[in-house]
Amino acid sequence: MRRRLLICAVLSVLPLAGCTSTPDAPEPKPVVPAPAPPLTLVAFDSCDKLLTELRAAAMRSLTAYGYFGAQPMPLAAEAGAMKADSGSMRAMDAAVPAPAATSFSGTNVHEQGVDEPDVVKTDGRRIVTVSGGVLHVIDAATRTETGRLTLGLGGGAPLLLAGDRALVLGNGSMTAIDQVGPKVRDPGPQIGYPGSELILVDLAGTPRVISRYRGDGRVVDARQTGNVARVVLGSNPRIVFPYNATGSEKSQLQRNKQVVNRTKVEAWLPQWEVTTGASTTSGHVDCGSVSRPASFSGASMLTVLTFDLTAPALTDGNPVSVVADGDIVYGTTDSLYIANDQRWRIDSMAGKAAPDTEIFKFALTEGEKPRFEASGAVPGMLLNQYSMSEWDGNLRVATTDLGSRSSAVRVLAPRGTKLTQVGEIDGLGKGEQIYAVRFLGPRGYVVTFRQTDPLFSLDLSDPSRPRLAGELKISGYSAHLQPVGDDLLVGVGQEASAQGVRNGVLISLFDVANPADPRRLAKYVVPDSTSEAEFDPHALLWWPATNLLVLPISGNGVLGLRVQNGAIAPVGALNGQAISRSLVIGDQLWTLGDSGLGVAELSTLDQIGFVSFG
């Protein structure tokens, strides 16, 4: 489980009893100095320098039980063997096929023009999904499966689509190299550690694997602009510490220090291996491609890879790394941001907690290696990627401080290599926490909740003087805010009693035309239910052509609603198997479940077909 999901799970069970305060509207603040010193990214000019600093950082976070912050390493026996796919790669032109004749929906994404990985994709002609480790290709016109390919991954996996190419993002394990050196006579049992696997698939004709990229760590997330995908990996150093159950903590810590002092730099540098046909190449990130913030633990590393999905094969991804961890990825066509909740790390040398959230910005140029541009820190915790938004060169960030139980929106501007705070709105929802955020151009909307749902409307047109424009208090809360037209938002969340007890999916329609007076025009409640769209916006479908909103309901199919003329009206429901995604192709609604894809009439949601994965 990702740490941010764990945080959300903990927050969801915090006591909801007590009165919700109704604070006066916070006054707009002028330019405010950042509460935490900005982080400066420094590139390493040699492997010796990198190794010296990594060892020193490791010592500061080392314990008798190992490396603070490192992930446990499963035995290699638990991992699948890394065998190359047989057959040779045929030469091909990766031309994007002509656009489909019918209209179709894409993944519900944060920024238009920037695609996000999801468990199902379509180009209007075919549907591609991975279920049970098998990639399925379905022809939408004939409603038949035209190809399947066993990928060797467990369960489902998200993917990206570009013409006749699919990039599948999976996680597995790799086998550790000798991270200490030849002087170790008995390395003991072979050690495995978390590994990522990226699979480039040719969809033209019978699906086949073109290339497999295997790398250190886990896939954090990815973003795609045009045919170019940026994949973010998070890894830990390959250091195995001996453990003696009968030894003292002092002696165990001393042994661990000895291990760190003789560990080679390769243990920290993320490894990669690419297999195309019968050919396999391998290597690791160069020392010169690694940067660090001013303060770091050396317990983890972020790596950004760049792939042209129409190239003949995968490469090493032209990696660029930073010595840091990361949980949340947000991207535009020109920038990539990675945020890292640092409340889990303590700087033992300084004797105080690290900044709450670090943010790293990468500048993107089409097809080229990302470039570290700036970094900074903000107090508090981000909810998800919607907590960040770049507009007019500035980054807006919404956070909740769990200590003060208050939320804020800060505006950060790049100043050289630093993301510097230039404006702030603090004191939002005192005694509450953020449940939803949406930034739209010069406006922002924040939902906080404990017993009621204040929807805050923000004016962000002046980055140095952002201000609270209006507020709406209603029962329940919205967990996701979806634009559904000019000055209209749909909120998907939970209805709640006066005591804050959740009692069913709540769909609200908000009119935000007047920032000073946001209003709820209509609501629809599904009692005693939840929806995956509450925590994963990819599960929500908004089809503006017919004003249709579709969302899954607590493992019992999907609900279709018509949102128009200031009202929300039910269109129909598909019951039966649990459904996780919905998509539109022409006049049909396709729904994805564990056992296959259902087909329904778009206008009525009446079932008309089913394509089984069996």
Kindly summarize this structure in a few lines.
This protein is mainly beta and 614 residues long. The chain has three helices and 44 strands. The strands form eleven sheets. Strands 1-16-18-17-13-12 form a six-stranded mixed beta sheet, with no helix packed on it. Strands 8-9-10-11-14-15 form a six-stranded antiparallel beta sheet, with no helix packed on it. A four-stranded antiparallel beta sheet has the order 4-5-6-7, with no helix packed on it.
Core attributes:
single chain; 614 residues; mainly beta; 6-stranded mixed β-sheet; 6-stranded antiparallel β-sheet; globular
Explain this structure.
With 614 residues, this protein is mostly beta strands. Helix content is 6%, strand content 46%. The protein contains three helices and 44 strands. The strands form eleven sheets. The chain has a six-stranded mixed sheet with strand order 1-16-18-17-13-12, with no helix packed on it. A six-stranded antiparallel sheet has the order 8-9-10-11-14-15, with no helix packed on it. A hairpin with a 3-residue loop joins strand 4 (120-122) and strand 5. The longest helix is centred in the first third of the chain and has 15 residues, at 47-61. The chain is globular. The chain starts with a helix and ends with a strand. Mean pLDDT is 83; it is low at 1-39, 69-101, 175-191 and 346-351. Keywords: Signal.
Distance between the termini: 29 Å
- The share of residues in extended strands comes to over 45%
Structural class: mainly beta
Mean pLDDT: 83
How are the strands of the largest sheet arranged? 1-16-18-17-13-12
Helix share, percent = under 10%
Low-confidence stretches: 1-39, 69-101, 175-191, 346-351
Rg of Cα set: 25 Å
Largest sheet: 6 strands, mixed
Number of strands: 44
**What spatial form do the alpha-carbon principal axes imply?**
globular
**Count of alpha/pi helices:** 3
